[in-house]
Design goal:
two-stranded antiparallel ribbon; about 200 residues; alpha+beta; five-stranded antiparallel sheet; about 30% strand; globular
């Protein structure tokens, strides 16, 4: 087992909840910079990103979404979230079955097939739409220790990786839609934002 797997094995939900930037924040339009330092600060950032993602709740979170323009994203497509009611009547989310993943300096190298999947985004809350993606991908990335890793995946994990990788290139999922759909959903979203 490498050190990265040790970091994620026996994951416990701990960290700091960070602010999630929403569209059209300028940081979401920037191309993120490669990560060069693999240190304790990076580990803390990744822990905080996971903590923020689980509490949002979402299945993926890229660094630009928390205002940091670095090539990092975290995800977990397997965790369970259940609403519970406490004895005093207050409600909370019970989170379990964690399978966190961290991708640093990712590069999607092979794209194959097509899949249509309904996507949402923590930076565009309340908007969901089907997006056409590649069904299978091969991705190379660095783990939390800076070791090179290769992964070939399909289905939801492939979709999620492509969605989060887009954030590192300054692309929000709305931009993957037809002009007609993009304009319609963007107007609807902006109207909702202005109405807050």
């Amino acid at each position: 087992m490498n050190k990265s797997e040790e970091f994620l094995k026996d994951y416990t939900l701990e960290g700091e909840k960070l602010e999630i930037f929403t569209y059209p924040a300028p940081v979401l339009k920037k191309v993120a910079a490669p990560v060069e330092k693999f240190d304790e600060e990076l580990k803390k950032l990744c822990k905080d990103m996971l903590y923020t993602m689980y509490h949002a709740p979402g299945i993926g979170l890229a660094a630009p979404q928390i205002g940091i323009s670095d090539r990092i994203f975290v995800m977990d497509i397997d965790f369970h979230s259940k609403e519970i009611t406490r004895a005093d009547g207050t409600k909370d989310q019970e989170l379990s079955n964690f399978n966190p993943r961290i991708f640093i300096n990712p590069k999607i190298e092979k794209l194959q097939g097509e899949i249509l999947y309904e996507e949402g985004c923590l930076s565009v809350p309340g908007i969901y739409e089907e997006v056409k993606r590649s069904e299978q991908i091969r991705i190379t990335y660095q783990d939390i220790e800076g070791n090179e890793q290769v992964l070939e995946v399909d289905g939801l994990l492939s979709v999620c990786i492509q969605h989060e990788n887009d954030h590192l290139d300054g692309i929000v999922f709305l931009e993957r839609l037809s002009t007609l759909k993009r304009n319609f959903l963007t107007k609807r979203y902006m109207k909702r934002v202005k109405g807050r």
